[in-house]
Amino acid sequence: QVTRLREKPTQTRTVHNGTLNKHFVVTDTVLPDDGVITVFRDVTEEKLREKERDRMRQAIDQMHDAMLVWDDKDSLVAFNTTAQNWNSEDTGIQLRVGMTIDDLMREFYHNLERQHAGDDQSLRQAVGGYDKEEYIKTEVEKHKVNRGVANEFHNPILDKYFESKDTTLPDGGFIQVVRDVTLEKKQEIEGTRLLNAIQHLDDPIWVFDQKDELVAFNIAMSEIHKIDFGKELAVGLQLQDLMEEFYDLQLKQGYRP
Prior knowledge:
Layout lengths: L1 H6 L2 E8 L4 E9 L5 E7 L1 H18 L4 E5 L5 E4 L1 H11 L9 H15 L4 H7 L5 H14 L4 E6 L4 E9 L5 E7 L1 H18 L6 E3 L5 E4 L1 H11 L9 H14 L5
Helix pairs in contact: 4-6
């Protein structure tokens, strides 16, 4: 210890007291008379907070959702592994601390230009009809006006759908969480196509839920109901009520049980 201190008169080290389960920062200083003064500072609380931050960082890195943190100048200050993987592997963009949202959208647009090289019409369609600067400005502006709102967007490079939500931070920056909703969106699109197809079938169809409540019907069923009962079919009607109407109609037409 004496030799170590002579080489460097003031030294600081961190020690852990297993008996007390406490962490200390210990500073040894050689005095003019060659004596040594040792100062112990209890940093247990700081160590616990540091471990908690590390645990939180590790948890965030394991998330399937992408997470990006931007400061009040729209500069990127942190991001998780998922965010980096989605950008580098899927779009070729390397996220960098310090890049701005404008930088990110500009690189994304350049990738779109490469993908649609020689086909200006398909490029314009992919960016909603905007020119380059309009597109970038619009995307940047979305992050300023849609805080707290989940926004769905389509990535034409990957043909994937994402849901993004920005939450304002106390320092004026914001945290952006992006979730891949491609599967749900494509199921929704397929479901819509199926419903549209059913709507145009000549056979009447209606659908009830587990509580016998009408949840869907097609045009043919609606027309039959209007002809028979003189009123529009409506979602929310109970199967029992509809059957009672049908029974009453049968009685009027001469049916005898």
